[in-house]
Amino acid sequence: MTASASARPIVKEEYEEDKEMQNELKLLVDKITGTDVKLIPSALEMLKYLIRTSTTSMTSVPKPLKYLAPSYNLLKESHKNMAKGNIKNSLADVISVLAMGTGGGEEARRNKECLKYCLLGTMKDIGDWGHEYIRQLESEIVQQWSENDCEVSENMLMPLIHDIIQFNCTHHAEIQACDLLMEIDNLQWLGNYIASNTYQRMCYYLISCSKYVDDTERSKIMQLAFDQYIKFGEYSKSLIIALQMNNDELVNQVFKKCRDKLILYQLAFICARHLYPLEFDQKIPECEEINNIASNSHLNAYFLSLARELDIMEPKLPEDVYKTWLEPLPPRLQILGENMDSARQNLASSFVNGFVNAAFGTDKLLSNDSGNKWIYRNKEHGMLSATASLGLIHLWDVDGGLTPIDKYLYSTEDYIKSGALLALGIVNCRVKNECDPALALLCDYVNINNEVLQIGAILGIGLAYAGSQRDDVLGLILPALNVSKSLEVLAVTSLACGLISLGTNDNEVPTNILNVMIEKHTSDPECLKSVYMKLMGLGVALCYFGARDAIDVSCNAMEVFPEPFKSAVQTMLLMCSYAGTGDVLIIQELLGMVGEKLEPTEQEKPVKETPKLKEIPKGKSKKIPDWDYGMGQAVAALAVASASFGEEIGMEMVQRIFGHMGKYGEPSVRKAVPLAIALSSISNPQLPVLDVLTKYSHDSDDEVACNAIIGLGLIGSGTNNARLSSGLRQLAVFHAKNPSQLFMVRIAQGLVHMGKGTVTLNPLHTDRMLLDPVGMAGLLIIAVSLLDPFSLILGKSHYLLYCLAVSIQPRWLLTLDEKLEVVTTTVRVGQAVDVVGKAGTPKTIAGIHTHTTPVLLAVAERAELATDQFAHFAPTLDGICVLKKEANVAS
């Protein structure tokens, strides 16, 4: 009772106050619409004052706007009959503001009366009417601009637009200013209003918007952001934009503008991580050091210092990864599972040994005197892969890694020799050396009349010079396309050419590969059914990596192929050219391909030929497989994951769609779905993704199960994820009697423990702003190879798994001082938070833990300095960061 009684006087008081305001507003309207001209100016000023003081906050509809709504038409009529002059203009301002509220109703919004009367008004101090009024004007300007109405020309709108932009940029509404200028396609004006206190927020927003517009608009946005970063001395951020645009001129401009030695070092580290072929030839003292950094020659030494810091130098055996003693099996079955198809299990152990000890320079199987014995426990192609695993163990160590491999070059066994050649290429992976040891050692074997040695040498060169775009290397291996008759050698050569000329958008290399494909098809139409021809098509596609719509020449050339093959290779072109772009239109197009129901019409000929195959008694007549009409759809499923890669919202939506593909898709699509899911979550074992792939790993279709198992390895690669490791041990028990699935389980276990948990396969780097094209290419080669796992990875071409070597990178945060020596400092690490367009200065990380560098970062994690002792030059703390000691901070 007491509470209700005390509330009554307040309600009554508010009611009296509202009544008083209504009377006052009615009196003012009467004066404005009355006949006494002398009373109008003062009444208008009073009315303006009342409205302005109430529209400063828009938590609810301002009372003056609500109470003046019935008088809206009366004021319009009065304005119409009023003589021209300042009073009429002032009244137009008031009507414009009232049109924003409920006064004009739907008709006022339809006729854009807020904008109309604003243009008829004084057009002075429009910001005084409040943010909501500015927003209403912005929406009506955009409508007006798109309609291009003759009544209101663009020239009339210009002064108003500039006033609005000026207001927004000085009142913490920079995002609205960006939106308005993007809507009316005049973003170039924005540069005049960007200030030192707003450029960070505005450029960050513009760059995030660039993912959702067409290529022309994207170029404008990125160029504007680049110019602002250069203007305000943000060289590392401007370099990132230049690399995103793949624009050599802009990259060179950044290096020319920058004069600070430490910032130049940081820029070189970013280029090295992106594998950008940087040649810094300016006449400055640091030139040699910058070129050393860009060549990645530091990588091995820094990685080993990280390993020593974490105390993980002790080599591991495959058994330490399998942990078979934890598998709930009786000893008899456990022995059976391990010894079944022992050559295959030894081969799996060779891969696992290589992956787990990658870049550590030592292991317990091959690095000692028993290395030869272990290699001879494998058969033929198994020997090739077992020897090549030495390349992974000595990854990035060009100076010390060649000697342990060299002795195998003198083996009498061709497979061991070929494996050593491939190992030499893997060691040089991502590292540029002035002596070119890979080229010197492998060049003699490229055009040799021995398929086995050719495969090792050519793939080795492809991996060693991936992304280098060197014409001399291409000139060495391209002739092999015209000389060799083996489809396997042609496929490996095409992939090597694609890796070396990655993203050049030059038609010469793809034209050479396509000519060979067309010749092969002309002489033997059945050869297109070979899995190696698909890999040749992928080699063509890699040349156009990131080219977007510049693929017409090769796309048209592929029209000569029959339908199932044609759609597959053309989709590969889309997959590579739009990789990591997040282009919504392309993703929609690819999803449309996946959803089509393909029914062969003219291609029924192979069906008629099948009885002839059956007549052959007990012969192994499966050399020429039947057409897989869904191969184009399978590639399209991978292409969806590739195109959406790096764009978080797109990746999340696409993963939901993959669930429907797995349920209702064609058999070809179903085996591609686990790979596509894994591709969109590389080295990022999220629980929902892990559960979906675990379900597929028990599928009745062997190909789906095998792909899901290796997919589990890819999503957990380099993470040491305990839940995933436990799940793979259970799968080893479940598939104990299935050699193929068990082989994949072992490979997956090796991937999860890759580099003893210190590396990643995720090609996104520098706070997920850049996509490493070489790393992505390595993943795409593996994904396409696994579309037919039994013919390639589970057949004799398992050495293709070493294409992952180009994707391996440390997942570290390593801090260096001015002398490029490792220095320890305190950092906060947490989950990255998207702060695009958020007001104020929100926290960029959540769930913070404090660590001392060097630290390992997961895919979705971000770090920031926890001390004022140092300043950093990288856009975010990620990878290798150069720190500068602050002068004003005591040691």
TrEMBL record:
The keyword Manganese does not apply. It comes from Sitophilus oryzae. GO terms for molecular function: enzyme regulator activity. The gene is LOC115874333. Component of the 19S proteasome regulatory particle complex. The 26S proteasome consists of a 20S core particle (CP) and two 19S regulatory subunits (RP). The regulatory particle is made of a lid composed of 9 subunits, a base containing 6 ATPases and few additional components including PSMD2. Interacts with RPGRIP1L. Interacts with CRY1 in a KDM8-dependent manner. Binds to the intracellular domain of tumor necrosis factor type 1 receptor. The binding domain of TRAP1 and TRAP2 resides outside the death domain of TNFR1. Residues 836-888 form the 26S proteasome non-ATPase regulatory subunit RPN1 C-terminal domain. One of its GO terms (cellular component) is proteasome storage granule. Belongs to the proteasome subunit S2 family. The keyword Repeat applies. The lineage of its organism: Eukaryota, Metazoa, Ecdysozoa, Arthropoda, Hexapoda. Residues 25-327 form the RPN1 N-terminal domain. InterPro entries: 26S_Psome_Rpn1, ARM-like, ARM-type_fold, Proteasome/cyclosome_rpt, RPN1_C, RPN1_N. This is 26S proteasome non-ATPase regulatory subunit 2. Coiled coil: none annotated. Keywords: Proteasome, Repeat. It holds the Pfam family PC_rep. PANTHER family: 26S PROTEASOME NON-ATPASE REGULATORY SUBUNIT, 26S PROTEASOME NON-ATPASE REGULATORY SUBUNIT 2. GO terms for biological process: proteasome-mediated ubiquitin-dependent protein catabolic process; regulation of protein catabolic process. Residues 601-621 are annotated as: Disordered. Gene3D superfamilies: Leucine-rich Repeat Variant.
